[in-house]
# Entry
Amino acid sequence: MKLAILGAGAVGRSVADLAGEYDHAVTALADSTSAAVDPDGIDVADALARKDESGRVGADAPADALDAEYDALVEATPTTLDDAQPGFGHVRTALERDRHVVLANKGPVAERYDELRDLERDSEGSVRFEATVGGAIPVLSTIDDYGPGKITAARGVLNGTANFVLSRMAAEGLGYEHVLAEAQDLGVAEADPSFDVNGTDAALKCAILANVLNDGGYSLADAEVEGIADLPGNALELAAEDGRTVRLIGEATPDGVRVGPRLVPQNGTLAVTGTRNIVQLETDHAGRLNLSGRGAGGPETATAVLADVNRLSK
# Structure
């Protein structure tokens, strides 16, 4: 398939870099200020080298990428809240052109899911968004295979930054600020980590899960969210005395969407360490399914994007 990729951050770059291995051509790649467009396929290596050298992927305008020749638009611009713009507008444009859309951007799916599905129904194109929940972990495709009506709830550890901080605090007895600074030095946490540590990122993913399981109706505003920044310093120590630990757990259940620090068994399934994610699906007939793996990272998330492209190509 021919791909137009919007966003040249870690995920967008990785999708462009790996597309050829999946037998797809990149006909457009755009960052916030420029684009490289060629109906026969751009030279991805050259575009990424230009980005590194000059901050621009090409000589074209970003809007030219939306107007390019492509079968699927890959929306990998940064997630925004509320109106989910400009990502939602990009999706609208592609669907109105009867093109497919693959999202790594969580905003349109978490904040405007019902509108997204309405646009899809009026289009010859389809929307897929595996990469918005759990990075490389095939959470949404598993739900799709089972049928959303056969899964009653989803919960898990859905943010690698928060999990790295909590698991390091527990293992080494270190304070929150010390571990957060370490995470930033390692590139695990952003310079402004609030999106991760205040629970917003996990809540967006849980809103997406709730939308998929219930055919819409949820956004971030419907979630009860508590982060880890205000966790008492002795909470992990006290938990360990009882054979437990603390993880930031997100839930999409019949009772709603909730995210917050929770006590879990120290050697239990939910006590994943480092930046790993895990999602538990409660099914009607197959019991509990545990899906775990790398929940973030450019190449990891790009594999989920390209898996969606492959599904569309079939």
Observations:
- Residues 73 and 101 are 5 Å apart (CA to CA).
- DSSP finds 13 helices and twelve strands in the chain.
- The domain at 2-135+298-313 is CATH 3.40.50.720 (Rossmann fold).
- Residues 298-313 form the longest helix (16 residues).
